[in-house]
Amino acid sequence: MENPKSEVRNPKLLVIVGSTASGKSILAVQLAKKFEGEVVSADSRQVYKGLDIGSGKITKKEMMGVPHHCLDVTSPKRKFTVSQYRSRAIAAMAAIAQQGKLPILVGGSPFYIYSVTDGWTIPEVKPNPLLRRKLERLSVDELFSKLKKLDPQRAKSIESKNPRRLIRALEIVLTTKKPIPQLKKQSLPYPVLFLGIKKSKSKIQKLIVQRLTKRFKQGMIQEVATLHKQGLSWKRLEELGLEYRFIAQYLQRKLSLAEMKQKLQKASVDFARRQMTWFKKDKRIHWIKNYREAVSIINSQRP
RNA sequence: GGGCGGUUCGUAUAGCGGCAAUUACGUUUGGCUGUAAACCAAAUGCCCUCGGGCUUCAGAGGUUCGAGUCCUCUACCGCCCA
Asked: What is the tens place of the pLDDT at every residue in A163-201?
């Protein structure tokens, strides 16, 4: 049964969430056309130039003239972080609102979405590759006890076996010389309407398979090969995950074609599951099945 | 025909007589505040609310308070000698 959702009067921001392959991008364009909006992408891979087919980036044609923001903002050789994303997205949203249009935040990276909608306060400490390399040599236990000494407060809440988080936490204390500030959540100063596309797990699975088949036909393997030729290391490609990870492994002969396809498919379905662990517990989201339901909810909340 | 080695929880493996049984992979679920498509955790014989109960280590017997673990036979697989 549906939970009664809180009323959102006259929303100034529309957020569309859903798992990968659920059809967010297309719905966003349709809604942008209908309600005079512009799209702000919230996708941690589509920010990179050249990651097109593999990241499922919307094409010019599919945009149907609707402006899209936060796509192709940097080279994949550089690392883009949530923090950078957050300020860009906020700036884009402001510019859209300035023109009297409706910003529509759409994407499959929950971390990116919530960094914007929940106003996360993120410590002002840039990644320090040298320090990270040094810390990476330590075991998780060593990292954890180091953190306990330097920032006992953070040590209480952190995942004690997650090296990546531990290293980041240490990076922050070691740079600022003081404990991590308390977490703060702050919602945006205007009404936000959250829509989530609801599809069954088996449906998503089917869509993922179909979409992968299509992408292979469109030259996804070639895309990865080209990126490597342009100087992206295998290591970096593998770090980019999913399509880029498994195709890079295939091109290096670490996997057969069949293994690569099978692993990629499974990893994509797993990814969809993890996306949903964020969205499932967010009570603000109005779950919808299609464009019509989306329109009727938006209309019901407008003056 | 003779000699030896093997048969364990989806797969691959560990298991000096006290074991529901190791590890890896797989599978399922969950977490997440500057790498987030990354990274991490938990569960994984069956039943169960904690406690616990029930049935397991190719099959059948036996020894023992107690058997994947020792003994005998049977089946299947592998190597060696004929």
From this structure: 999 999 999 888 888 777 666 677 788 888 999 998 988
pLDDT bracket for residue A255 (50, 70, 90) = confident
User: In this predicted structure, what is the pLDDT of residue A227?
Assistant: 95
Q: Which of A16, A190, A184, A27 is nearest to A94 (CA)?
A: A190
For A102, the enclosing helix (H) or strand (E) is strand A102-106
Q: Is the CB of A209 under 7 A from strand B?
A: no
**Domain locations in chain A as residue ranges:** 13-120+185-300, 129-176
Residue A85 C-alpha from the chain's centroid:
10
Distance CA A46, CA A267 (A): 18
CA–C1' A275–B55 (A):
39
What is the distance in angstroms measured between the alpha-carbon CA of A77 and the sugar C1' of B6? 53
The tokens for A82 are 């949530």
**Residues 220-239, chain A: which have Cβ under 7 A from strand B?**
239
pTM: 0.87
Q: Which nucleotides of B are covered by protein (CB under 7 A)?
A: 26-41
Q: Is the Cβ atom of A274 within 7 Å of strand B at any atom?
A: yes
Mark residues 126-165 of chain A whose C-beta is closer than 7 A to nucleic acid strand B. 126-127, 132, 157, 159, 161-165
Is residue A244 scored above 90 in pLDDT? yes
Strands across the sheet containing A285-288: A68-69, A37-41, A102-106, A13-17, A192-197, A285-288
- In angstroms, the CA A244 to CA A260 distance is 11
For residue A237, name the pLDDT band (cuts at 50, 70, 90): very high
Q: Which fold has domain A13-120+185-300?
A: Rossmann fold (3.40.50)
Q: Could you report how far apart the first and last alpha carbons of chain A are, in Å?
A: 27
Residue A17 banded pLDDT, cuts 50, 70, 90: very high
